[in-house]
Design goal:
By secondary structure, the chain is of the alpha/beta class. The chain has 14 helices and twelve strands. The longest helix is centred in the middle third of the chain and has 17 residues.
Length: 334
């Protein structure tokens, strides 16, 4: 069975370098770390994580709290980018998908099984944030609360995204616009981006003197179909829709077609989600390019910097403002 000394000889580094790579006690160059990891793989070395945790008081495990029983393609991009960042820095990732009100995972953090936490689907008033603060456990947010003083987060600037979308549609001659938001359950839970998008929508509508209606929508094609039909009942003059969730897109297009309308000649669609998802529909959707990978990477990076004592004195707070990419689903009002 290979030992740390064997790893050091194979990698051509000092024994202390192997030790620091595994424990994370001191910074190691990326080149040296990769040499150690390669030697470990070649020799089939399996470190005793339990013994190391007892000595260092660290498990090198971070938890991602993502309250969703099913992960969409975009959500998987979040998880993949976080896992890649964690692995690069020698951390294991625990994915916890139970509902946010299920706080069993907090017992694991309290008992020392987890070094730090990344929170997602963050509510404006999130009980998980209060509990983690009480436990004095390092954590970061992908998303943000209403009061973010002292919190480290990365988020899409939904105010800017929605305002950019409405500005584009207004300039294209659309004066009656509908917003298709996330589910009613997420709005009731006050998930930050769901509330912010709705608020920004009506603020922009009012600012430009436009007419706007909105509706929540579950993640299914049929829900998308029924939502569009309902919005047309509220405002028959609708000529554009803003979509915050990709899964109803097929139903949205079907409903528009059943109304005898064409995309984009009669009705424009603009989305705020992953470009990969936007390009899967026919026609491809104009969209604000939701940066899933970048947000996941930054959220994990900020947490790891906290764990390794490299965080700046002031909490990092990053709002991303990706551009609008115009595709074939939108254009001037006929």
């Amino acid at each position: 069975m290979a030992t740390m000394s064997d790893i050091a000889r194979r990698a051509g580094v000092a024994l202390s370098t192997v030790s620091y790579t595994l424990s994370g006690k001191r910074p190691i160059s990326e080149e040296a770390r990769q040499k150690v990891y390669q030697a470990m793989e070649e020799l089939g070395y399996q470190p005793n994580f339990l013994a190391r945790a007892l000595v260092t008081k660290r498990t090198k495990i971070i938890a991602l709290l993502y309250p969703s029983y099913t992960l969409s393609s975009g959500q998987q991009e979040f998880v993949t980018s976080i896992a890649e960042m964690a692995t690069t820095h020698g951390y294991a990732l625990l994915l916890w998908t139970s509902p946010s009100e299920n706080l069993e995972v907090m017992n694991m953090t309290h008992q020392g099984f987890i070094d730090g936490v990344i929170l997602m689907e963050v509510a404006l008033h999130d009980a998980r944030v209060d509990l983690l603060r009480e436990q004095n456990l390092p954590f970061t947010l992908i998303g943000r609360c209403e009061n973010n003083e002292g919190l480290s987060f990365v988020d899409l600037d939904f105010d800017n995204a929605v305002e950019t979308t409405i500005d584009y549609l207004r300039a294209s001659g659309h004066t009656h616009i509908g917003l298709i938001n996330q589910s009613e359950a997420m709005l009731k839970r006050e998930v930050g981006y769901v509330v912010r998008a709705r608020t920004a929508f009506y603020r922009a509508i009012q600012h430009h003197g436009l007419s706007g209606v909105d509706s929540c929508c579950d993640e299914s094609e049929q829900a998308g179909y029924e939502t569009v039909m309902r919005l047309f009942e509220q405002d028959p003059e609708l000529s554009a829709f803003v979509l915050l969730t990709p899964w109803p897109s097929g139903g949205v297009l079907r409903a528009i077609s059943d109304k005898g309308l064409r995309v984009p000649e009669d009705t424009s669609l603009v989305a705020i989600f992953s470009p990969r998802m936007a390009e899967m529909t026919t026609p491809a959707l104009s969209s604000i390019e939701f940066p899933f990978n970048e947000m996941g990477r930054l959220g994990a990076q900020m947490l790891i910097q906290k764990l390794e004592g490299k965080e700046e004195e002031k909490a990092a707070q990053i709002l991303l403002k990706p551009p609008l990419t115009v595709r074939r689903s939108s254009g001037p009002r006929a």
